[in-house]
């Protein structure tokens, strides 16, 4: 379909939607739903919060469509509505945390730790629907770069207005003037917020993104790393696991508060807990936050199968794993479309 025909179709659907045609409204927003959801995740650090925020934002847009005057694109207007919805959520709930935010690392394995339920934890994001490259010509970040764990975790250290300004400018390619209109403020205030936000993010995010690292590593080596991690976990092979890691590797497991830094501490934890004390593992490769991920299922004797346990998001430096973030809990598996259980294999009997 030509750009002219597409514009006419959008204008027609917009007129119908303003008259109360919800099917026309659905046709208007459906092509933008995935990128709006990713924006909500970047703002909020939680897939579940992003679900709620997007639903709320589209309801607000539907009810307020008669006030959309067409001075900006529909896409820009929907981002304005979604951003304000997320800012309301940030004001109510505050920021999401990672274990590293709560205290120093542990030198030795902590066994039998109870999850900390009163902390709003950062969660993983299913990135299968994200496109490659930037969301707009003027954007600094690629779409997948902008959901990488380090970037989203850094955003959580920003006040809501700085978070929104940085995302709208660097990820979505809005101008400072457009952001000022979106956030009902001045261009000077936007530029000030951007300056402060960039400084904090630069302190917390590596200069080389995971997307650049993964492209340099290559698909074949990446498959070897994921397969090696999975095999080591399933067979209890500490030597294979350690060979994949950098000297300064970290391992964290939200909602557990203890985390480990350095090869000695990580090895002690790995040997004492997942490689020894756990009853058995099966793993599936997947992708979260634009990064290689291993979905780990743990053996459940009573059910005679493997149940969801954690999504292990791997962060690479060169062709070694420098960070493992294990998001524990079966609820994380649902947005990824992963199986609710895995059966016993012949080799397990």
Report on this model:
It is a single chain. The chain contains 12 helices and 7 strands. With 349 residues, the protein is of the alpha+beta class. Among the domains are: 1-94, Rna Polymerase Sigma Factor, Chain: A (Orthogonal Bundle); 210-348, Nuclear Transport Factor 2, Chain: A. The longest helix is centred in the first third of the chain and has 23 residues, at 22-44. It is globular and about 65 Å long. The protein starts with a helix and ends in a 6-residue tail after the last strand.
Structural Rg? 22 Å
Low-pLDDT segments, ≥5 res:
1-5
Q: Please give the largest β-sheet.
A: 7 strands, mixed
Overall mean pLDDT score? 92
Helix count equals: 12
